[in-house]
Amino acid sequence: MPSWALEDLFAREAPPEGPWEILLFLTEDENLRAHREALALFVALLPRRKIYVLESHFILMDLERHARTPAAGGRRHDAFFYVAPSTWSYLYRQSGKASFRGTLVEIGSFVGGTTLALGLGARGAPAPSVATMDPIIPRTFAPLMDRAGLKGIVAAFEGSSSDLAGRWASWSASRGLRSEVALLFVDGSHEYEHVLEDLTLWSPFIPSGGRIVAHDYFHPLQPGVPRAVEAFLAGRPDFSMEKYLADAVVCLRK
Hints:
With 254 residues, the protein is α/β, with parallel strands linked by helices.
């Protein structure tokens, strides 16, 4: 459903009432700009009640409460994200530590749900801390970051992972970000060649003690992810598998 149709729907009718637990949001292609903007708008207009599950493994919840931290200034940060709740919490907790050692880089921001995990976790860092990229950055992305109090903390790049990797030194410096990547969250294209390219291009920026989190490692329909991670590790003895999450793996640079 294109974004204009949702805007028209909610201009005429109040958001549905009731304690929904399951909501189906179906469109033809999640990588269309209209899909992302419509989904983000739908999320923003929904009554904010406990947990919403979209298309089986898509999650929407009160992020601050879920992470067991007080909401800053009484804010609630409701947003849509793909990852399992425990993986979101890992990103949140780890980013608070990693942000003092380097930049947190996200490949594949979608509509900003996991970007919030990184940004909210890194709020105490002394400098801008998060760089995120995606070929499609919807118009709802910046307002979501602003509402979460992350203006100046998150820098977004609309383009491919390879494009940004090629200009990372100058781009990061222009935005006050450190060139060292303390945490890399890989959640872009899940094709084998693309995942391996992401790992190969960004690993030189990761110092000792830095981590890679590769999403959808266990997804039965995404075999390219584990194949790429295993191929990368086979040729990089300086990286090792550190931790298994609900739907991701963590690799540590020794």
